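Structure in, sequence out. Go:
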C-alpha cells in the first residue's frame, strides 16, 4: 500500500498536534516515526490508518495504483497498538478464530501454526483476560504480523516485552513482514532497527 498525505494537519480542540504533513509512504518500504512522548506519533499513525480524519489536508491510500475508498482502507491493514484492545472474554484459541473471520492469515499459516509461533504452550484454552501483559503483547503482534494485509502499523511494539519477547518480535518481523509497507512509531531504537526510512514528528509541530 502507498499513502499520500498533502498538507495534513490535526488539532484536538484548540491545540494543533500536527501541521503541514506532506508525506508519501511508499509501498513496500519500512518507516520509523520517532518523537518524544506526546509529540503526535500515535496521532499520525491513526491518520495513516484511516481511523482518524485530519482536521485539514488530504490523505489517499493506494493499492496497486488504485485509490482505496476510505471506508475500505481497514481491510488492507493490520495494526498493533497499546490502545487497540484484544477481546478479553475470549480464549486464545477463540481469539484466533474470531480474528480470522475478519482477516485471513498469510498463506501457509493457520491457528495451529500461530499457536506454536506464540510460544505460549498450554495456553490455548486460557482467557485472554488472564494473560500477562507480555503475553497480550505477543498476541497483538502475532495477529498483526501474520495477517494477510499490505500495510502494517506497529505502535510501540515492544511495550511490555522482556528481552526474550523483544528477540521474538524481531524474528517475527524478519519472517513475516516480507515486502509489505511497514510503519513503526516508537522512541526505542530496537523497535525499528529494520526500518530503512526514519523521521521525527517534531518537523510537523512548527507553525
Ligand atoms: N482524543 C484526544 N483528545 C485530545 N487530545 C488528544 C487526544 N489524543 C491525543 N491527544 C493529545 O495529542 C498529543 C499527541 O498525542 P499522541 O498520543 O499522538 O503522542 P505520542 O507521540 O504517540 O505519545 P507517546 O510517545 O506518549 O505515546 C498529546 O498532547 C495528547 O494529549
Amino acid at each position: 500500500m502507498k499513502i499520500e498525505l498533502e498538507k495534513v494537519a490535526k488539532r484536538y480542540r484548540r491545540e494543533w498536534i500536527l501541521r503541514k504533513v506532506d508525506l508519501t509512504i511508499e509501498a513496500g518500504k519500512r518507516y520509523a516515526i520517532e518523537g518524544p512522548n506526546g509529540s503526535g506519533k500515535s496521532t499520525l499513525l491513526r491518520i495513516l490508518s484511516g481511523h482518524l480524519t485530519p482536521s485539514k489536508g488530504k490523505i489517499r491510500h493506494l493499492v496497486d495504483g488504485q485509490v482505496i475508498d476510505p471506508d475500505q482502507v481497514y481491510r488492507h491493514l493490520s495494526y498493533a497498538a497499546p490502545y487497540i484492545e484484544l477481546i478479553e472474554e475470549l480464549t486464545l484459541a477463540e481469539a484466533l478464530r474470531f480474528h480470522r473471520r475478519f482477516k485471513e492469515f498469510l498463506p501457509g499459516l493457520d491457528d495451529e501454526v500461530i499457536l506454536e509461533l506464540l510460544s505460549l504452550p498450554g495456553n490455548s484454552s486460557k482467557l485472554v483476560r488472564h494473560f500477562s501483559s507480555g503475553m497480550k503483547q505477543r498476541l497483538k503482534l502475532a495477529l498483526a504480523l501474520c495477517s494477510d494485509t499490505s500495510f502494517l502499523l506497529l505502535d510501540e511494539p515492544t511495550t511490555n516485552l522482556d528481552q526474550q519477547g523483544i528477540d521474538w518480535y524481531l524474528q517475527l518481523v524478519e519472517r513475516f513482514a516480507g515486502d509489505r509497507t511497514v510503519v513503526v512509531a516508537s522512541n526505542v531504537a530496537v523497535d525499528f532497527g529494520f526500518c530503512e526510512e526514519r523521521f521525527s514528528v517534531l518537523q510537523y509541530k512548527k507553525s
